[in-house]
Design brief:
- The protein is mainly α.
- About 65% of the residues lie in helices and about 0% in strands.
- The chain is elongated.
- The model has no long low-confidence stretch (mean pLDDT about 80).
Length: about 200
């Protein structure tokens, strides 16, 4: 579904992979992500592409980033399965897609509780966790806020001593998203310039 949507998006905007890579390169500032045309081409063949690459592909084609994120989250969930019991250390997490996979793994290890069960567990731990916020977090629609993230971890039984490392992982993911938003703004500006008559 994600791969098909991305390829349709590229065809609709009429860009080659080389043109997309050039646009992203010209719109990137120091510290922002650049991708080659081969990397962009492989995203439609990969069952579980990384979110920064999907994001770059989408903004290069002037697509709907929110729609892309929902489709990517579905693909990531399907690829992750439910048998994984070990995952990344929070110190190694830098990207939203990595954090999302670990949140899903933590939930599975906690017995795969429903959203209502997670809310109940959070209340027992003295935390507030709105159902709508929780649903958006686990679908990958947005990064969690600090309080909601701590409530989710508490509801899943994560030890107190691990919370600081998880909070630092969340902050690194926020920084990455700030860079991606800046890149998206530059890519849109470049697309407007390329589309303007000479």
């Amino acid at each position: 579904m994600l791969a098909q949507w991305l390829e349709q998006l590229r065809q609709q905007c009429g860009l080659t992979y080389r043109q997309m890579a050039l646009m992203l390169q010209q719109s990137s500032a120091d510290g922002l992500i650049r991708y080659s045309c081969s990397q962009l081409a492989r995203v439609v063949d990969h069952p579980d592409p990384q979110w920064p690459l999907v994001h770059a592909f989408t903004v290069a084609c002037n697509g709907d980033v929110k729609r892309a994120q929902v489709l990517w989250a579905d693909a990531a969930h399907a690829a992750s399965g439910t048998s994984r019991t070990s995952g990344m250390r929070p110190e190694s997490i830098n990207h939203h897609h990595e954090l999302l996979k670990e949140m899903r793994r933590i939930r599975i290890q906690a017995g795969n509780p429903s959203l209502d069960q997670l809310r109940s567990r959070a209340r027992k731990a003295g935390q507030k966790l709105p159902k709508s916020t929780l649903g958006a977090m686990l679908k990958g629609q947005r990064l969690p806020g600090s309080k909601a993230f701590k409530a989710f971890l508490a509801a899943c039984g994560e030890p107190e001593g691990a919370l600081r490392a998880w909070e630092e992982a969340l902050e690194r993911c926020r920084e990455e998203q700030r860079k991606l938003r800046a890149q998206a703004r530059r890519a849109k500006t470049m697309a407007l310039l390329l589309a303007s008559p000479a």
